[in-house]
């Protein structure tokens, strides 16, 4: 990213966590919000300026996972993987943190450039739930900002965090989930073969995990979005998923 370019922010999160409310508050646009899941369907885009930088924000559909079981999940995953966002902002619900962190951990497997927004802090307070954002940030290794987007609280801090990660002033070091020894061994082998083919475009550990998982949609999407020089992955993946032992 250079100063003359727009900073691209992908806005991800479970349904109904306030992504579009954050999006509207920051961009001044009016994406439809409401209290039922799945309202945001396309990739709504809006811009804002902060500390002299221009940001382009892309409001993704709400998803519980990035394993492409549905069109929405594939849209969200594809944008995070192939849309080259400078930062992925994951909005989570402070009142259901444990469930919401599942998606955050999945994003953290794909990219380091992530900011976590713990929204609905007013609701959490009302329910007697406290969230120690500093400790959460230490544990996860990524910036964590508390917001109450409907009340426009915490948004300036959120913009600062996005700015810091996008410009490299803050370099997140996301917690890496470790799987069973058997899986880790398989990942290690596969990762070594994949890494040179990917040329830094995607995180090879994550691609290795997806191939082991038998996720063929990822290969199809790579064909769609990436140039020829990263395609020989098909040969690496042949026979991988059915033949690897299950953990
Ligand atoms: N109390 C409170 N309500 C909020 C806050 N942020 C958003 N909401 C409300 O939560 C509901 C869902 O907000 P949306 O912004 O539509 O959520 P979303 O994540 O975009 O939802 P999907 O597009 O379905 O994934 C709306 O009724 C918002 O007004 C907040 O910080 N506090
Ligand atoms: Mg929305």
From TrEMBL:
Record InterPro entries: FeoB_Cyto, FeoB_GTPase, G_FEOB_dom, P-loop_NTPase
Start and end residues of each FeoB-type G domain: 6-168
The protein's name: 50S ribosome-binding GTPase
Gene source species: Aneurinibacillus thermoaerophilus
Lineage: Bacteria, Bacillati, Bacillota, Bacilli, Bacillales
């Amino acid at each position: 990213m250079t100063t003359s370019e727009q900073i691209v922010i992908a806005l991800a999160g479970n349904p109904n966590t306030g992504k579009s409310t954050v999006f509207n508050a920051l961009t001044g646009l009016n994406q439809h919000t409401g209290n039922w899941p799945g309202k945001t369907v396309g990739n709504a885009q809006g811009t804002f300026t902060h500390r002299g930088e221009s940001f382009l924000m892309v409001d993704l559909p709400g998803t519980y996972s990035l394993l492409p079981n549905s069109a929405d999940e594939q849209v969200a995953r594809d944008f995070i993987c192939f849309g080259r966002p400078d930062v992925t902002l994951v909005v989570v619900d402070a009142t259901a943190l444990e469930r919401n962190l599942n998606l955050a951990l999945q994003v953290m497997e794909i990219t380091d450039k992530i900011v976590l927004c713990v929204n609905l802090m007013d609701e959490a307070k009302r329910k007697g739930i406290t969230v120690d954002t500093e400790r959460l940030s230490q544990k996860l290794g990524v910036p964590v900002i508390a917001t109450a987007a409907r009340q426009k609280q915490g948004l300036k801090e959120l913009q600062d965090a996005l700015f810091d990660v996008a410009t490299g002033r803050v370099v997140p070091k996301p917690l890496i989930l470790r799987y069973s020894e058997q899986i880790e061994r398989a990942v290690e082998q596969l990762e070594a073969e994949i890494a040179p083919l990917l040329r830094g475009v995607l995180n090879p550990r994550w691609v290795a995990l997806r191939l082991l998982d038998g996720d063929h949609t990822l290969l199809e999407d790579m064909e769609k979005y990436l140039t020829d020089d990263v395609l020989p992955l098909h040969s690496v993946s042949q026979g991988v998923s059915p033949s690897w032992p299950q953990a």
